Amino acid sequence: MSYKAVQKVRVKVPASTANLGPGFDSLGMALNLYAWIDMAISEQTTIDLIGDQMHGIPTDKTNLIYKVAQMVFQEAGVSHPELSISMYSDIPLTRGLGSSASAIVGALAGANALIGNKLTEYELFQIASRLEKHPDNVGASLFGGIVVAFWDGEKAESIRIEPDPNLEVLVAIPAFQLATEKARGVMPKQVAMKDAVFNLSHSSLLVAALITGNLGMIRHAMKDALHQPYRAPLIPGMKTLLEQAENHGALGVALSGAGPTMLALVDQRSSRKAELEGFLKETLAKEGIEAQTLWLKPSREGVTTTALQENDGDLQSFVDKEVHA
Ligand SMILES: Nc1ncnc2c1ncn2[C@@H]1O[C@H](COP(=O)(O)OP(=O)(O)OP(=O)(O)O)[C@@H](O)[C@H]1O
Ligand SMILES: N[C@@H](CCO)C(=O)O
């Protein structure tokens, strides 16, 4: 991490999947699907959103990235009211792949780089958790790998786990959006003790399986009684996928974050990948849901920043040359 203030910075931030089934609001994994943000201190604020992914995102000072950057400056006791911001993202919005967390973490890291990293990663994690109100997506986007975390309303703590090298991730991204707020709204305010114990034991077992590389245990551990049963009616086909994907080659299956994306963990050595992908797509199609499938890997790296020089190209040309190369 650089401690020298820079004029212009390029941020690369990974997508993330939260919960991994039983770890509601406490487990997250960074994925190798990325967003990029260029940020510079400027005379006048401009916000340039590149690509098809960003429909509906404001381009004035109400923009989340602008607002989060200002929080960093305020926390560090500096004033930079005008910023030039460009963003490009391959992370679909409002689908359960942590788009809001990527925007928050990207903005925190970018603004912090512009002021010579005055805030620590731990401080950024506190701000990010406060903003998202849960630490799972932001922890994964910030630290990379698999993150086990809590946020108690005041502070967040986390430990990062190195993902097993054989872990691969298949996501099925439905063509409709589901806001986290809506998917949290269907959950009960109180849960039965037996469901709490169910999740404690399964989440703990899942963490142990991920740490020890016991991939065969994932099918037993990746079960949830706290949020998926309530969210299933919002995603037709989800119940069938949860019940049957393991019979088609998945190590385990879960709703990704607040959905609607469905996620399967897969051993990359599996010979049944095509079968699993077909099963996910066909199950959703039977319910009239068109879904895009993507094969991903855990992203070992969290958010990174690179100082840009005057003559470095803009984000659009970087995306054309490097991302879509
Ligand atoms: N680059 C961005 N700039 C500004 N706002 C963004 C950006 N990306 C996401 N958002 C905001 O975050 C909202 C999506 O957040 P939401 O928590 O509902 O879904 P998600 O983060 O994609 O999924 P999940 O949290 O379930 O993984 C968008 O509707 C938008 O308001
Ligand atoms: N843990 C969160 C992730 C979505 O932002 C949830 O499931 O609501």
TrEMBL record:
SUPFAM superfamilies: GHMP Kinase, C-terminal domain (SSF55060), Ribosomal protein S5 domain 2-like (SSF54211). Residues 207-274 form the GHMP kinase C-terminal domain. InterPro entries: GHMP_kinase_C_dom, GHMP_kinase_C_sf, GHMP_kinase_N_dom, GHMP_knse_ATP-bd_CS, Homoserine_kinase, Ribosomal_Su5_D2-typ_SF, Ribsml_uS5_D2-typ_fold_subgr. It catalyses: L-homoserine + ATP = O-phospho-L-homoserine + ADP + H(+). It comes from the Bacteria. It is found in: Cytoplasm. ATP binds at residues 92-102. The keyword Phosphoprotein does not apply. Keywords: Amino-acid biosynthesis, ATP-binding, Cytoplasm, Kinase, Nucleotide-binding, Threonine biosynthesis, Transferase. Residues 63-145 form the GHMP kinase N-terminal domain. Pathway: Amino-acid biosynthesis; L-threonine biosynthesis; L-threonine from L-aspartate: step 4/5. Pfam families: GHMP_kinases_C, GHMP_kinases_N. Its main location: cytoplasm. It is an enzyme of class 2 (transferase). This is Homoserine kinase.
